Fold this sequence. Notes:
Pathway: Amino-acid degradation; L-kynurenine degradation; L-alanine and anthranilate from L-kynurenine: step 1/1; Cofactor biosynthesis; NAD(+) biosynthesis; quinolinate from L-kynurenine: step 2/3. Catalyzes the cleavage of L-kynurenine (L-Kyn) and L-3-hydroxykynurenine (L-3OHKyn) into anthranilic acid (AA) and 3-hydroxyanthranilic acid (3-OHAA), respectively. It is built from twelve helices and 13 strands. The radius of gyration is 22 Å and the shape is globular. It has two domains: 3-31 and 303-402, Aspartate Aminotransferase, domain 1, CATH 3.90.1150.10; 47-299, 3-Layer(aba) Sandwich (Aspartate Aminotransferase, domain 2). By secondary structure, it is α/β, with parallel strands linked by helices. Helix 6 links the parallel strand 3 and strand 4.
Amino acid sequence: xxxxxxxxxxxxxxxxxxxxxxxxxxxxxxxxxxxxxxxxxxxxxxxxxxxxxxxxxxxxxxxxxxxxxxxxxxxxxxxxxxxxxxxxxxxxxxxxxxxxxxxxxxxxxxxxxxxxxxxxxxxxxxxxxxxxxxxxxxxxxxxxxxxxxxxxxxxxxxxxxxxxxxxxxxxxxxxxxxxxxxxxxxxxxxxxxxxxxxxxxxxxxxxxxxxxxxxxxxxxxxxxxxxxxxxxxxxxxxxxxxxxxxxxxxxxxxxxxxxxxxxxxxxxxxxxxxxxxxxxxxxxxxxxxxxxxxxxxxxxxxxxxxxxxxxxxxxxxxxxxxxxxxxxxxxxxxxxxxxxxxxxxxxxxxxxxxxxxxxxxxxxxxxxxxxxxxxxxxxxxxxxxxxxxxxxxxxxxxxxxxxxx
Length: 405
């Protein structure tokens, strides 16, 4: 692909104007790690300053009564409406992805006390697997593993074979962190439900880049982070969705004061709040929710259908350029070739990709590395340009050509 092709694609891109809204997008740095940490929006600095001077510095403790107490639920409802395909009252923000996954797993197992298995795949994100191992030991249940291709993900046929009368919970990622395999949420959820199991979806690598329909797919539980395609910043809080039909009987194990029915009563015994608030535990991270609100506003303006269209176009372009520039150097595609089966990133395999990634960082080309031999190109639809993709892929070839072996 020529420079002219990338320039034409950028010129014709209806979303290109939004790139200038992100800090650093004007620089020559090639950023292929938006699927790990998104660029900040320029308006976020202004929001943070206003918060420090106004709400925090000006209102002080009064902020809890005026807005902060309900902010996790308010932002949760915005997440639900804009990017999750869910109605209000089912999503809240707080804690890390790890903590919320733990809460959701324990809630699901408690709701299926007569069942003894968690089904998950060997290539799920490490935290998901590690948590499932710990929860299984804690609760005395077994893990049933699905073996998957690291360049693909869990198929309907594989899940149907794995679930059965002992399955309490199926734990799946909507987009595989390694390959970008885009799971069929509706079909896999149906298969699990037909077996009488609950389903917990990890949305960390899809939310903000792939349209999601939690309510329409009849999902039970979902968790996701906010620092990737939601551009919430390093360590910004995660979110949890619990379908309304489960809320009054699901309980979570981290019983803190903010999830109590009357937090300020501070009575001797814990009683869970009604609705999604019961999945809160401690004091919510108010500052950590600020940047996320700016990105949600932008996604609301653009629409997830347009974001997905740009994401598909970017990854298709990356696959094409990699085929022309990198395939002759022995680089293979470790993501689905069909864009309907692929999320927002592309993984390329070569035995020297670990060394190549380190060298690329020195040149201000920032992908990331995942075993085995995978270099990931994380393409954020609103902040990544076609020219950036072209320059980055050409830099990968130059680095590989200069490495020994």
